[in-house]
């Protein structure tokens, strides 16, 4: 994919390096001359300019990008970049960084955002996931909250031990997508038995998360 990243600070550069390692073509757009350092991420294309300006985006050829990531440290800038990328240049996928969780309500498809990533919320979820057993933990939100990635770790005394996946009566708007067992990543099949300590990952509508918990006996 060709990916444009607005903001070449520490976060933007780190994302760029990860994507380049994955074989993607990356362009970094940075308005601050102090942070315009092409030698740090030499494999990326660099553009010096304000990503909130239509002229900068036009000159960069952003319409040829498959994904735009608004990764600056300013939520107002990220929302504007997302809106321009989606409405003016019809970029298929727009991801935006949320710096202040109180601003999350802004990061919706009305502002051109397909995926909003809140670092504080993700860190909190990772802490919960690390210490919670037998409780549902929301790890990530998709489609502005219409779907969530949630996780539950089966405790040692789980009544589901030895029972096949097919016996979990999940609600309609939920799906078990992965079982993590030790170092294994298991794509669940109906006949696969569950074991204590399994980490179950579901994609579910927020409204049925309580039903998922009930289906698992919690």
From TrEMBL:
Pfam annotation, one family: TrkA_N
Boundaries of every RCK C-terminal domain copy: 137-218
Key words, A-Z: Ion transport, NAD, Potassium, Potassium transport, Transport
PROSITE patterns per record: RCK_C, RCK_N
A single cellular component GO annotation: plasma membrane
GO molecular function ontology, one term from the record: potassium ion transmembrane transporter activity
RCK N-terminal domain mapped to chain residues: 1-117
Segments crossing the lipid bilayer: none
Protein name: Trk system potassium uptake protein TrkA
């Amino acid at each position: 994919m060709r990916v444009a990243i607005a903001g070449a600070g520490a976060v933007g550069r780190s994302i760029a390096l990860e994507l380049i390692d994955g074989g993607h073509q990356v362009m970094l757009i940075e308005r601050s001359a102090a942070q315009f350092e092409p030698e740090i991420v030499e494999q990326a294309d660099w553009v010096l300019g304000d990503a909130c300006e239509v002229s900068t985006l036009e000159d960069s050829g952003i319409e040829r990008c498959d994904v735009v990531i608004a990764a600056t440290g300013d939520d107002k800038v990220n929302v504007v970049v997302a809106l321009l990328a989606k409405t003016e240049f019809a970029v298929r996928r727009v991801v935006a960084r949320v710096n202040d969780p109180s601003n999350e309500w802004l990061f919706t498809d009305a502002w051109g955002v397909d995926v909003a990533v809140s670092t504080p919320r993700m860190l909190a979820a990772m802490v919960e996931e690390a210490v919670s057993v037998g409780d549902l933990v929301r790890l990530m939100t998709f489609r502005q909250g219409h779907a969530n990635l949630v996780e539950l770790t089966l405790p040692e005394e789980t009544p589901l031990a030895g029972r096949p996946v097919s016996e979990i009566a999940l609600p309609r708007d939920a799906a078990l997508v992965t079982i993590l067992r030790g170092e294994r990543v298991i794509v669940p099949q109906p006949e696969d038995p569950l074991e204590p300590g399994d980490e179950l990952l579901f994609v579910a509508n927020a409204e049925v998360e309580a039903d998922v918990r009930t289906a698992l006996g919690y």
